[in-house]
Design goal:
Layout lengths: L3 H12 L22 H12 L7 E2 H9 L5 H13 L3 E6 L2 E6 L1 H16 L11 E6 L8 H11 L3 E4 L2 E4 L5 H9 L5 E6 L16 H23 L5 H15 L2 H4 L14 H14 L1 H13 L20
Antiparallel strand pairs: 1-3, 2-3, 4-6, 4-7, 5-6
Helix pairs in contact: 1-5, 3-4, 8-11, 9-12
């Protein structure tokens, strides 16, 4: 069972990867975009099958792996180069061949991020009926910090009740003050309290669009229900399994950004989060061995000994 501080730490460390502004020497993930962009796709694959490996992987095999998803050779090589420049990949050359692996720092951050994503929705949290509120004002000369701060707060489970007043149903952690200090948001305060009715004209739960969030979950269930049936019947092959497993992870990874695991006390009885998680677990875990097989097949075309380094994990990673 994850504790709230552990989840907060995982979120906080992953935030170091999603800033949009370039900082010298910083480890960063590319900006999140809709669909499977090459850099995000490559990181997903490395996190899913090479997280525990320190071996260098031939760039040609990674290019071939991305071809399974319709990414061109040029697009794949550009993604490798950019991730290397961002400090996420270490490279090595032997003759004319280039090899890559995750840097230790990137691997550690991806592991914590994976634990958070895979554990999302796994257990019910006790709600104290208290809200954590962050109030801040960002001066015009710090306007570049605004989108970064919003991204950070969402990852920490907050949503905007008003532009400069963000709210979360979960207890505060040190990560909140760390974010405010790091971004030098001096005109800010963090406080906790019970809200009996409203702040101004808005009830606390109005910070989240529950109708839209419900649609996200029901669309997810509709999109992948047939796939779950086919996985259960053994009707999915290795190549399809790799693509399908990566696709469902790509969809699921954004759920924590949309829903801070709102307490059940605040939600309708027929809330679809549990059903969506059950479907995700069945497909993601159920396709693990098949997807790993396909990754090993691709690696074996370039280096038979290296093919054994590919290894999948399941949602149990969230409990380690």
């Amino acid at each position: 069972m994850r504790t709230m501080p552990a989840v907060a730490r995982a979120r906080g460390r992953m935030l170091a990867l999603v800033e949009e502004a370039d900082e010298a020497g910083a480890v960063q993930l590319p900006r999140t975009q809709a669909g499977s962009q090459p850099q995000h796709l490559l990181l997903t694959l490395l996190g899913d099958y090479f997280l525990d490996s320190s071996e260098y992987i031939p760039s040609a095999s990674l290019v071939s792996l991305l071809e399974e998803f319709g990414i061109t050779s040029a697009g794949s090589r550009a993604a490798l180069s950019r991730l290397s420049r961002r400090g996420l990949l270490a490279s090595s050359k032997s003759g004319r061949n280039t090899y890559y692996r995750l840097t230790p720092r990137a691997a550690a951050l991806l592991r914590e991020g994976a634990q958070h994503i895979l554990g999302f929705g796994a257990g019910e949290r006790h709600w104290s009926s208290r809200w954590t509120i962050v109030a801040f004002s960002v001066p015009e000369d710090q306007r570049q910090a605004r989108p970064v701060l919003r991204t950070r707060l969402r990852w920490l489970g907050f949503a905007p009740l008003y532009d400069g007043l963000w709210i979360s149903p979960h207890p505060p952690t040190d990560d909140i003050n760390a974010v405010l200090d790091e971004l030098q948001i001096k005109a800010s305060t963090v406080f906790v309290g019970e809200i009996r009715d409203r702040i101004g004209g808005n009830a606390p739960l109005s910070a989240w669009d529950l109708d839209d969030l419900r649609r996200v979950y029901t669309d997810f269930i509709e999109e992948f229900s047939e796939l779950r049936r086919r996985v259960g019947n053994g009707d999915v092959g290795a190549a399809e399994g790799l693509v399908a497993r990566t696709t469902i992870m790509d969809r699921w990874r954004n759920m924590p950004n949309l829903d801070p695991e709102l307490p059940s006390e605040l939600l309708p009885e027929d809330w679809p989060r549990d059903a969506a998680r059950s479907l995700f677990v069945d497909v993601y875990d159920g396709l693990g061995a098949l997807a790993e097989m396909r990754v090993r097949q691709i690696l074996a075309e370039f280096s038979a000994p290296l093919s054994s380094i590919a290894a999948h994990h399941t949602t149990e990673l969230a409990t380690r």
